[in-house]
Write a structure and sequence with these properties.
49% helix, alpha+beta, extended, five-stranded antiparallel beta sheet, 17 helices, 19 strands, single chain
Length: 663
C-alpha cells in the first residue's frame, strides 16, 4: 500500500470516521441529556475562566521578571526613595496592579512600595519567598492573606478590599491575590525581591474579560466560602459579592475536586461548575466558579445543537474534498526523496529537485536538501578520489625522489576519506532524527486509535492498527540503534555513571523476555549474587543485557534453554549469556561484531535483524573499560561473555569516538 493511501486511511479513521459518528450521535441524542450538556458547557466555560486567571498570573510573572532585570532599577537598590518613586510611576502605567514592592532578601521587611499606606508583607507572600519559589527565577501564585497584614484599618486599601457579608453584615477581611515575585541579582548575589500583586476583592477586570469570552455565563471567586469577586446576577440584577458560594469552604477543603450542581439564585435556578485554585505549594486556597441560568442554557444548547449538526456536515464535506490534495502535497516530497535515495545508491550524482520543494523549514524540505547536498558531495569526492588514484599511478612510474610527493598525496586522500566517513555519519544521524519524529507521531496516532480515543474499532481494524504499531516500534528500534551507532562514530555518546545493584538491573531486563520465552517454551536460568554493586551507566548496561538476551532467544529453538551467569573475577564483573541455539560458524565469529554484519548476510536469511546489536554492545562495553568476546559451535550453541570494572577507578574514561576507533 502506498504512503498516500495510508495517509488517506489515517485521515479517514482519525477525522472523517469520528466526525461521522459524532454527527450521528448528535442527530439521535435524547432530549433528557441536559445535565451532560450543562456539565460540558460549563466545563468549557471553566476552562476559559481558568485560562484568564492563569494568563493574568503569567503577565504578572513576565512583568516582575522584566522589572528585576532592569539595570537602572538594579542599580538603585540603595536609594529607597528613588525605588518608591519608580514603583509609584509604574503603578500609574499599569493601573490593574494593586501594589508593587521591593522586599529584603530575608523577606523580613519592605524596602519600598508603590503605595505609602502599604507597610507590611503578608505572611503567605513571605512564606512563598522563603520557600525558594522565586529564589532564582520569576514565580507567580495565587495567595490568600488578611488585610491587616499589609495595610492599616481605615487606609484606602482597607476600605477598597474588605467585603461585607450579605447575610450577617459583618466584614470579611481576607484577600485573594495573584502575586508574582522575581529575584533582583547584583553580581550573581541576591539583594532583594520585587513583588507585584493584583487583588481580586471587589475587582471586575477578570469577570469582564470572562464575559467577553463566554457571554451568557457568570464568574465568581470564593475564599472561605465567601464570594470576593463576581458578576453573578439574578433576574433583579442583584450583586452577589459578599454572598456565600454554592460549595462551602469546609466541603471543598474536604473533597478537593470539581463540583457540579444547581443552586437557587434570586428565585432563578442556576447550574454551576466549581473548581479550585492552588497556591505555589499545591494547597487549595480559593474556589473558581462558573454558572448559567438553566432556562437560558436550554435556549443556547438548542441553537448550538443545530449549529453543530450543520458544522459537522460541512466539515465532513470539506475534509473529504481537501484530504486528497493534502495527502498528495505531503507524499510528493517523500516519494521524491525515496527516488533520489535509490538513484544515489545506484551511482547517479546529478539530482534534479523542483526548487519549490527545497524552500522552507519543513522536515521534507530539509531532507531533500540534505539528499541533494549528499549526492553533490559524493560526486565531488568520487572525482577527487579518481584524480588522486591517477596521480598515484603516475607517481609510481616516476623516480625514487618523488616518493615524498606521493606520500603527501596519500595523506590528502586519507583526510578526504575521513571527511567522507564523517559526512556519512552526519547523514545517518540527521536522517534517523528526521525519521523518528513522523514515525513517533504514527505510533502515537495508532495507540490513540487502538485505545478508543476517537471511537471504537472493529476487530479487523484493531488488528491492522496493532500491526501498524508493532511495525512502527520495530522500525523505531532499528532507527534508535542506527542513531546510537552514529553518535558513537561522531564521538557524541556519553556515559552517566552511578552505583546500582547489578541483580536489580538483570531482573528488570529478564522481565521483558519471560512472556516471549514462555510462548516458545524456552527456559531462562540465572546465577547472580544479590550483593554486587556496580559503578557504571545502568541504562547502557541494561541495553547490553537486552541485546544479548534478545539474540539468544531469537536463535534458540522451541523448548531450548538460555543461561545467565554472573561472577566477580579479578576486580571485574564477568557476565556470560549462553544458549543452546543454532551457533555461529567459525569464519563469521569475528565480523559479527562489526556494524550491519550478521552471521547469515544473505537476502533469504531466516532470522531478521539489522546487525547492530553486537557492534553496539562492543562499543558500550569498551566505553566502560571492559571486553567482550564469544565462544560458539555451529549446531551446539553460543556463549557471549563481557566484563565490566567493579570499582570507580576502573570505570574507563574512554569516549564513544575512541571506543569506535579502537574497534
Amino acid at each position: 500500500m502506498s504512503i498516500q493511501r495510508k495517509i488517506m486511511m489515517v485521515i479517514f479513521i482519525a477525522v472523517v470516521f469520528p466526525s461521522a459518528l459524532m454527527l450521528a450521535f448528535i442527530s439521535f441524542e435524547q432530549k433528557d441529556q441536559i445535565d451532560q450538556d450543562a456539565r460540558q458547557y460549563l466545563s468549557n466555560a471553566f476552562a476559559a475562566a481558568y485560562t484568564i486567571e492563569s494568563s493574568q498570573l503569567s503577565d504578572l510573572r513576565i512583568s516582575a521578571s522584566m522589572l528585576s532585570a532592569n539595570p537602572e532599577f538594579i542599580g538603585s537598590m540603595d536609594d529607597s526613595e528613588y525605588l518608591a518613586d519608580c514603583l509609584a510611576d509604574l503603578q500609574k502605567l499599569v493601573p490593574y496592579l494593586d501594589f508593587l514592592a521591593v522586599i529584603q532578601p530575608d523577606a523580613s521587611e519592605l524596602l519600598a512600595s508603590s503605595r505609602p499606606s502599604i507597610t507590611g508583607i503578608p505572611k503567605s507572600l513571605r512564606e512563598m519567598l522563603l520557600s525558594g519559589a522565586a529564589r532564582h527565577f520569576a514565580a507567580s501564585s495565587g495567595l490568600v492573606f488578611d488585610l491587616s497584614e499589609f495595610s492599616a484599618p481605615g487606609s484606602p486599601e482597607w476600605e477598597r478590599y474588605q467585603i461585607k457579608i450579605m447575610k450577617t453584615g459583618e466584614y470579611f477581611n481576607k484577600c485573594l491575590a495573584g502575586v508574582a515575585a522575581a529575584p533582583i541579582l547584583r553580581d550573581g548575589r541576591l539583594v532583594a525581591y520585587v513583588a507585584l500583586a493584583d487583588i481580586a476583592n471587589n475587582d471586575n477586570s477578570m469577570p469582564a474579560r470572562f464575559t467577553k469570552s463566554v457571554e451568557d455565563a457568570y464568574f465568581s471567586l470564593t475564599v472561605s466560602g465567601v464570594r470576593v469577586c463576581s458578576n453573578v446576577r439574578d433576574a433583579a440584577g442583584t450583586s452577589y459579592i459578599g454572598s456565600y458560594g454554592p460549595v462551602s469552604s469546609d466541603q471543598w477543603e474536604r473533597v478537593k475536586k470539581i463540583e457540579f450542581g444547581r443552586v437557587n439564585v434570586g428565585e432563578e435556578i442556576h447550574v454551576f461548575f466549581t473548581g479550585y485554585i492552588n497556591d505555589y505549594s499545591g494547597k487549595p486556597i480559593a474556589a473558581l466558579g462558573v454558572g448559567i441560568p438553566e432556562e437560558r442554557f436550554r435556549v443556547i444548547m438548542n441553537v448550538h445543537k443545530r449549529i453543530t449538526v450543520l458544522i459537522c456536515a460541512v466539515t465532513l464535506l470539506i475534509v473529504l474534498t481537501i484530504s486528497h490534495f493534502v495527502t498528495k502535497k505531503i507524499t510528493e516530497p517523500i516519494n521524491l526523496a525515496t527516488e533520489i535515495a535509490q538513484k544515489v545508491s545506484q551511482g547517479e550524482r546529478n539530482i534534479a529537485v523542483p526548487p519549490y520543494m527545497l524552500v522552507g523549514r519543513q522536515e521534507t524540505a530539509r531532507l531533500l536538501r540534505a539528499l541533494k547536498e549528499m549526492a553533490k558531495t559524493l560526486g565531488a569526492m568520487e572525482q577527487e578520489i579518481e584524480h588522486f588514484v591517477h596521480n598515484l599511478i603516475d607517481s609510481n612510474n616516476q623516480l625514487e625522489e618523488k616518493v615524498g610527493q606521493r606520500t603527501v598525496v596519500l595523506q590528502q586522500m586519507i583526510r578526504e576519506l575521513e571527511r567522507s566517513n564523517t559526512v556519512k555519519s552526519q547523514f545517518l544521524s540527521n536522517m534517523t532524527h528526521e525519521l523518528r519524529t513522523p514515525l513517533s507521531a504514527v505510533i502515537c496516532s495508532g495507540e490513540a486509535l487502538l485505545e478508543g480515543h476517537f471511537g471504537s474499532l472493529t476487530e479487523k481494524q484493531a488488528k491492522h492498527v496493532n500491526n501498524m504499531i508493532l511495525s512502527g516500534r520495530h522500525l523505531l528500534q532499528i532507527i534508535n540503534d542506527i542513531l546510537d551507532i552514529s553518535k558513537i562514530d561522531a564521538g557524541m555518546m556519553k556515559l552517566n555513571f552511578s552505583e546500582f545493584r547489578f541483580a536489580d538491573a538483570l531482573d528488570q531486563t529478564l522481565l521483558t523476555f519471560y512472556s516471549f520465552a514462555g510462548r516458545k517454551e524456552i527456559t531462562i536460568r540465572e546465577n547472580c549474587p544479590e550483593n554486587i554493586l556496580l559503578y557504571a551507566d545502568e541504562k547502557k548496561i541494561r541495553q547490553i543485557l537486552y541485546n544479548l538476551l534478545s539474540n539468544a532467544l531469537k536463535f534458540v529453538p522451541i523448548g531450548g534453554k538460555v543461561w545467565v551467569d554472573v561472577r566477580e573475577l579479578d576486580n571485574m564483573l564477568r557476565i556470560a549469556v549462553k544458549d543452546n541455539g543454532i551457533g555461529i560458524r567459525k569464519e563469521d565469529q569475528e565480523r559479527i561484531f562489526e556494524a550491519f554484519e550478521q552471521a547469515d548476510n544473505s537476502y533469504s536469511r531466516e532470522y531478521e535483524g539489522t546487525g547492530l546489536g553486537l557492534p553496539l554492545c562492543r562499543y558500550l562495553v569498551e566505553m566502560h573499560g571492559g571486553e567482550i568476546y564469544l565462544n560458539s559451535l555451529e549446531g551446539v550453541g553460543t556463549e557471549v561473555i563481557f566484563t565490566i570494572p567493579l570499582n570507580k577507578s576502573g570505570k574507563g574514561e574512554q569516549s564513544a569516538h575512541d571506543a569506535a576507533a579502537a574497534g
